[in-house]
Structures are given as C-alpha cells and as structure tokens.
Amino acid sequence: MVVHYRTPRESVEAAHAVVRAAPGVEVVVVDNASRDSIAEDLAREVPTARLLVEDANRGYGAACNRGARETERPLLLFLNSDALVQPGAVEALVAALDADPRAAAVGPRLENPDGTLQPSIQRLPSLRTIFFESSGLAALAGGRFPFRGHSATREDHSRTQAVESLKGAALLVRRAAFEHAGGFDEGFFLYGEETDLMARWRRLGWKVLFEPSARVVHTGGASGGDALFGRLHEGLALHVARHQGRTAATLARAVLRAGAATRYVLSLVTPGERGRARRARYRAALAGTRRA
Based on the structure, what is the number of domains in the chain? Predict the structure, then answer.
C-alpha cells in the first residue's frame, strides 16, 4: 500500500510500479486528506488501485493501520509515495519471509535515482546513539564502533541478514506479526513509527531481515524535505520515551536541541542555497524538539 500526502504524481508512479512489478497484487493508496487530484489521477492511470481517503492527516502510521484493516492479505507491503518497486523485488521479499517463519518483516536494497546505494540498515535509536549522532562523534568515526549512531552506521548491504532496524520507505510485513505487535503506534506522526514497531517485534521474538536482491528506488523528501526535519527529532524523542522512559527522553531532547543549535549556528556562514537549506532544516529541528 502507498501512503499519499499531496504528491499525486509520485503516488501514482509508486502504485503503477507495484502493478508492473507484481501483476495481480492488491494495490491500496491511503490518502491522508490531501484534497488534491489523486482520485482522478489513479482512476485514469492505475484503475486497479483502490483509494482510501482519510478525513484528516493523522500521520504515516495511522494511514498504514487503516490500509491494513481494509485488506485481508497475509503479507502487507508498506511504501512511501516516492518509492518505486523494481522488477523482481516483490518476489524476492516474499521468498525471504517464506524462508524464515520468525521474520516479521523484510526490507529491500534502497537505491537513489542514479542507482547508487541508499544505506537503509540502521540501529534502534537510544539516548546513547542519539548523543553520538548529535555530537558529531558518529560522523567523525565514519559510523564505526564504538561511536556508531542509529542512522550514522557503517553496515554491509551486500548480503541477506537479520538487522536491528531499517528505513521504512519500503517494507514487506507479515500480517500475523503486524497484528501481534498491535500495528503502528499512532502517537508517531511521521518518522520513528517503523523503528518503534521493530523494537516491539524484537521484544516479542520476531526478526527483521534485509534482502539486497530486492531493489526499490527511493527519492526521499518528496512530501516535505527539510521542512519536516523537526518531525524526525520528534520521532527520536518519542521513541526514547517509549522504550527508555521519561528521564532518558528528556535528556535525548536536550541533546537533540544542542546538536541542532550548533549546526544552525554553523549554517549561518554557509553560503548560497546550501546554507538556506541547512538553516531551514535546523530551524525545523529546533521547533520539533520543543514539541516532542
């Protein structure tokens, strides 16, 4: 299923890519109250897709939960609107889940539009990994031990393996595991909902797999980009609150704010469009940590 929010061209292309890659699958597009042309565009270009329209935008996880409730298939493919499934990817993901009954979900190799690897294997966020990333230690260490972050990590993307966490741009999920964990926590609006679910799967004894033979092209940032960077910080702080408690979450918010403030100050001397983009990103981050 594709979650749509004011990206009609991208959402139609994502749905169309699924139909091309895996004919006969049920394609569902969940519209988070976009009030745009998605209904007409889908009817014209991907008539087999089913559109579900939310009354309000309650976030990515809530849209996924709605889509899951409206279908009965044993496997659920959750897709961002800017993720294009490549030929053979669905079959490879299904085969990976079939081979391991304790696997709750499997993610593909994500690629940038130019075909280069988009690293997607991550670690579960914690106060420790947030400190390493916000302080810059993870970047200085190149994502290596002992300063690996949650996203700033150096991982082997060449082999099938069990992992702690993955980017959620494209994820094939076993319905039984999804329902066992209670689905996505709708307290997460955008960013963090997939890592929270993976953390809960881990506690319940399920595994998450990475399958590099499945390829998905992911643009990233189509429905918000830097303006939504604060949502990422909100999600990180909420994840820590859920899994490490309020005290750790308070410290995580302080670390995130300090890191964002430092980067904002540095961006003041960055010239041109790059500087403007960095300032927008870290202003959003600072606003996000206040709300979290």
Answer: 2
CATH number at residue 47: 3.90.550.10
Phi then psi for residue 75, to 5 deg, are -125, 140
User: Does residue 291 register a pLDDT over 80?
Assistant: no
The residue among 122, 235, 138 whose CA lies nearest residue 187 is 235
168 and 184 Cβ atoms separated by less than 8 Å: no
- Both 75 and 179 in one domain: the answer is yes
Same-domain status, 180 and 279: no
What are the C-alpha distances in Å from 29 to residues 41, 99, 220?
A: 12, 28, 18
Start-to-end CA distance of the chain, whole Å, equals: 28
User: pLDDT tens, 148-157?
Assistant: 999 999 999 9
Q: How many helices (H) and strands (E) does the chain have?
A: 11, 11
Q: Is the full-model pTM beyond 0.90?
A: yes
Look at residue 30 and tell me if it is in a domain: yes
Banded pLDDT at 292 (limits 50, 70, 90): very low
